[in-house]
Amino acid sequence: MKKLFNLRKGLVLTSLLSMLFLAACNSEESDKDASAAGKDTIKLGLLEDHSGDFSLIGLQKLHAAELAVSEINESGGLLGKQVQLIAPDTQSDNTKFQELARKLILQDEVDVLMGAVSSASREAIRPIVEQNKILYFYNNQYEGGVASKYTFATGGVPEHQIQTLMEGLIKDYGPKVYVIAADYNFGQISADWVYKETVENGGEIVGEEFIPLGVSQFSSTISRIKDADPDVLITLLAGAEQSAFYGQWANSGVRDIPMGTTVNMAQAYEHLRFQPPALENMYVTATFMEELGKSDLEIAPKAQEFVDKFYKMFPDDKYVGMEAEAEYSAIMLWAKAVEKAGTTETDAVIEALETGISYDGPAGLVTIDGKTHHAIRNVYLAHSGKGHEITFPKQWEAIVPDWLSTEKGVDLTTKPEFVQYNPLD
């Protein structure tokens, strides 16, 4: 009898413990559900350089993001919620990029990650993005070739900039091309694209140099350029230090060699920072420059409206360049995709973006190419005169960045990839 009583007592105790355990589990799940349901903001993580070598561009992008988020929130937010911008300073330090990317993803639990000026910074965090399967926007001109299921690139790429630039310069000035480029993946791969397009247009590379980031003295480089006597000088320099080249180039007395670039003037406004004629006779294939607003192009009113809004919010800023526009337009594209998906869930937003989301903004219509995750956009040829006055002698409409899809068979809508292709592979 005593044995039976103890058995029943044990069964009752076991049952009670099970009920308590289940109650605790249900309570925990309820807390999670309540937390998710009660989440009153959508979090946008932004990694840009507020300080350091790339801060001239990074601050423009930060402020463009703040402008875009403020406009979205003033219009009612997304899915009935306000967008919260979390934007720590990455300090132009790739180790800091990695640390802050992990923090934003794992601790802050952002719904989307954007940012990076340099390609080195992008490549420092892309593996973290892919490991954590989070949506990432790289809103910057770059060397092209990234095929990643979780990455969308909204800035200019070689199809927009280098193909157009080299065809025109070789036709107008001659076949001999000298290239100086920043010594990291942006400069190296962009130089490969310049080589490819130079050869295809009947030209030749008569000199090529890769300059380490942080270098600001160019006397020996200028001497080698003079000795090579090129018809065209292509400059693919990056960062505040390397831009010192232009003042030294102007002081060298060379006046008859045109310069071509995909970055300078449109990014870090060297035509305003340096006294004329440092940037005389420079061409840049730009996706946006603030001077578009004063041009006679059809896009001028929209460009000027964006510039005016930017300076109203940030009156002490010095310039509104193409990466500011890329950041702003990317946030608007993301917002439209979130609204279409009806959620911030990564796969659903990617699927919405891949349908070809468009935004008609400061630089004209920008549309996501679903296969490559890059942007179909207009390109404007900008020229700097003797007094650094900017004119736009040519424009190209709706250039499709299709090298990845046509040459490499990339279709991210059907086959996820996580690589960067090179034009000379």
Give the low-confidence spans.
Answer: 1-38
| Helical amount | 40-55%
Give, in order, the helices and strands: HEHEHEHEEEHEHEHEHHEHEHHHEEEEHE
CATH architecture of the largest domain: 3-Layer(aba) Sandwich
By DSSP, the count of extended strands is 16
Distance between the termini: 85 Å
Number of domains: 2
Structural class by secondary-structure content: alpha/beta
Note the overall shape.
Answer: globular
What is the CATH topology classification name of the largest domain?
Rossmann fold
CATH superfamily of the largest domain: Response regulator
Tally the helices: what do you get?
14
- In the CATH scheme, the class of the largest domain would be Alpha Beta
What's the overall average pLDDT, rounded? 92
Strand content: 15-25%
- Rg (CA only): 26 Å
Please outline the major beta sheet.
9 strands, mixed
Explain this structure:
The protein is α/β, with parallel strands linked by helices and 425 residues long. It has 14 helices and 16 strands. The protein has helices at residues 2-37, 55-74, 94-107, 119-132, 158-173, 185-200, 219-228, 239-242, 245-251, 270-273, 300-313, 322-341, 346-353, 403-407; strands at 41-47, 82-86, 112-115, 136-138, 146-148, 151-153, 176-182, 204-211, 232-236, 259-261, 282-286, 358-361, 364-369, 374-384, 390-399, 418-420. The strands form 3 sheets. Strands 7, 8, 9, 10, 11, 12, 13, 14 and 15 form a 9-stranded mixed β-sheet that branches. Strands 2-1-3-4-6 form a 5-stranded parallel β-sheet, sandwiched between helices. A two-stranded antiparallel ribbon has the order 5-16. Strand 10, helix 10 (270-273) and strand 11 form a beta-alpha-beta unit. The N and C termini lie far apart (85 Å). Mean pLDDT is 92; it is low at 1-38.
